[in-house]
Amino acid sequence: MSTRPISLAPEVAQALKNGDPVVALESTIISHGMPYPENVESALRSEQTIRTHGAVPATVGILGGRLRIGLTAGEIDHFGQNSGIPKASRRDLPHLLAAGGDGATTVATTMIGAAMAGIRLFATGGIGGVHRGAQQSFDISADLLELAATDVAVVCAGAKSILDIPLTLEVLETHGVPVLGYRTDAFPAFYTRESGCGVDVRLDAPEQVARLLHSKWAAGLAGGVVIANPIPEAFALDSAYIEDMIEQALFACAQQGITGKRVTPFLLAHLHEHTGNKSLAANKQLVYHNCAVAADIAAAYAALCAKL
Ligand code: PSU
Ligand code: MN
Predict the structure, then answer these.
(1) CATH label of the domain that carries residue 20
(2) Average pLDDT, the chain
(3) Annotated active-site residue in 87, 160, 261, 284
């Protein structure tokens, strides 16, 4: 038995051994980001999308005190159904591993698992960031510090404007995390294609992104990369509409005294409920798009590594 608390699904282990493309997926989006059963449907379709684009999916979660890299459909259903599974960020890992518990991995802990396994690409919806009012609350997602330290590239639709996007980009800059726009000059705001902020560099082809990733890590520059991929035009929400809904969600959050790790799941659930699931439909579509792009980049990265 390995001394590390990690288990790879056989298909994932084989793909990594062969140098084939693999894309990691997170489980907090399943357990705490979407309602059941849409969460399970979305997780399975995400995996299928990655396969269609020529890569092997590896959904990450903590089961029985082990970091599992690649889950079965039954295990994904377990994450989808069981609202008792805690959201597990970096600080929660030691306890869950020691106690033999289950945990839904956030962007931060999915990066940790992916890096341990040797997976370089990860697809999700949105990253955590600096919350509005962080000057008072100090609520800055551990995702940002993980991006500073761990060698995994995260394909996302930017960050939700439940966050302070300009401050989120400042923190990423401080920590030397490149923010790439995939076929865009604008940093996207999850439900919408623009946030009013720009990206550091725009790249239009998977091969260009693969080269940047390779150059970064070959130069010994540890840490992740944000690959910002805007929601497809057809699924984007009206920005005034969603901004209004976000304001309402933030107001409810403050009124109910929600703080800490409960904030993001609360805001997501509030939005899904109060937009008649418009936000959920958009959320699902942008995740599939991120899966397709991450798989394309993973394939280009694998091809580049095979050549060098
Ligand atoms: N943003 C989303 N959907 C999500 C999350 C973020 O649009 O499901 C999840 C991710 O797992 C992310 C986490 O890592 O929330 C961030 O939580 P916090 O803000 O507590 O760090
Ligand atoms: Mn937080």
Answers:
(1) 3.40.1790.10
(2) 96
(3) 160
